[in-house]
Amino acid sequence: MARVTELICYPVKGCAGTSMSEAVLTPAGLAHDRSFMVISEDGVFRTQRRHPRLALIRPTVSADGARLALATDGHGTVGLDVTTSAPRRDVDLFGAMFQGIDQGEDAAAWLSDVLGTPSRLVRVPPEHDRIAEGLVSGPSGYADSSAVHLLSVASLDLLNRRMAERGAPPLPMDRFRPNIVVDGGWAGEPHTEDRARRVSIGDAELGYAKLAVRCAVTLVAQEAGVRRGPEPLRTLAGYRRAASGGVVFGAKFAVAAPGKLSAGDEVAVTEWGDAEL
Q1: Are 158 and 188 in contact (CB under 8 A)?
Q2: Kindly report the CA angle at 237 between 236 and 243, in degrees rounded to 5?
Q3: For a disulfide at 204, which of 126, 175, 259, 260, Cβ 3.0-4.6 Å?
Q4: 151-176: buried (b, 16+ CB within 10 Å) or exposed (e) per residue?
Q5: What's the chain's average pLDDT?
Q6: Whole-angstrom Cα distance, residue 244 to residue 250?
Q7: Could you give the CA distance from residue 114 to residue 107 in angstroms, rounded to a whole number?
Q8: 0.90 exceeded by the pTM?
Q9: Half-sphere exposure (CA, 13 Å, Cβ side) for 277?
Q10: Which residues have a Cβ under 8 Å from the Cβ of 163 and sit 6 or more positions away?
Q11: What does the alpha-carbon distance between residue 3 and residue 267 come to, in Å, rounded to a whole number?
């Protein structure tokens, strides 16, 4: 049977992920996932597309979300009490305007120093009501689109085999920044996640939203915080090009029923459909 092999939360959009043995799945995704976002002084979100050093920042958030620490080599750690009562400010995410709660001067100064450009940190407000569109729509924090990104080990293995044929070295799973990694059973066949329409994990349920369109973030070596070469986009373009013209890898899901997830949980598909590719 297919099982969860890894759960990864990204508390700060664009920053490093935290691998977990268990996690709470909320209506907006894994608890605290993309709850924070680094922005410019005029409110535009920062991304690894332009600031690959974000990958080197390691966030740690307390279970209740009340404390956040940011760490990276050479810059130490900054810790802060998370505020949800500070004034809201406008933030720009792919041209759409939302609200964010500024987390203060200490975080701003630390991030500005690490990234080498004036930056600030905001948190999703409790009243945040963003709905990410898809075949199944649902709430989402500051994620690019839908709340949960699911990817199989088999899909990555196939990509690495195809890259090897071109003389390119294999890539790790973290290049694709999934939330849920699955393997075995139905997931043993590459890209079967494309056809999963309803997925049950533990006491939670996911509804398929869309295929995951890949961007230049996949070119960033996460352990180094630098952009490296044309892979995997070059190889993906040869066999995973969508009708829209982008390349796709993995699938995005909305949360149909929240619950608790654990590494090793069975991943059961209760409804199948046709791949959109």
Answers
A1: no
A2: 115
A3: 259
A4: bbbbbbebbbebbeeeebeebebbbb
A5: 97
A6: 16
A7: 11
A8: yes
A9: 20
A10: 169, 170, 171, 231, 232, 235
A11: 5
Whole-angstrom Cα distance, residue 203 to residue 266? 10
List the Cα angle 55/239/48 in 5-degree steps.
Answer: 15
Q: Are 274 and 13 in contact (CB under 8 A)?
A: no
Main-chain dihedrals φ then ψ at residue 51, nearest 5 degrees: -130, 75
Model confidence at 21: pLDDT above 90:
yes
Residue 97, burial from CB neighbour count under 10 angstroms (0-12, 13-18, 19+): exposed
Class of residue 126 by CB neighbours under 10 A (exposed 0-12, middle 13-18, buried 19+): exposed
What is the rounded (10 degree) CA torsion for 232, 133, 64, 119?
60
DSSP, collapsed to helix, strand or coil, labels residue 179 as: coil
pLDDT at res. 249: 98
pLDDT band at residue 243, thresholds of 50, 70 and 90? Answer: confident
CA distance 269 to 192: 10
